[in-house]
Amino acid sequence: MDPASNYLRAELLPSRASGWHKWRRYGAMAVQVIAGEIPTNVDLVVYRRDTGAEIMRTPADVGSPDFLLEQVNADLKSKTVTEFVAEWRLDD
Predict the structure, then answer these.
(1) Whole-prediction pTM value?
(2) Is residue 22 part of a domain?
(3) pLDDT digits (tens, 9 = 90+) for 25-55
């Protein structure tokens, strides 16, 4: 098996939301504060290793961003690119 981690990498980056998405993000952060959670303003980003092209960017605003990153990295190590793309529904 050729793991997806040979071809893809993931990291957490500051959100770059703008316009309506920015206000939606602020609303989600307010709900987190009301619920007693620590608000996050980061995105989970998956890149191709060969070109550096971003193939997925999603808000890491549900639960722990670090846990989400760990989960994605585990999937990258344990799945092929085809399996990873199918599970995370990426357009490659």
Answers:
(1) 0.73
(2) no
(3) 666 666 655 666 555 678 899 999 999 999 9
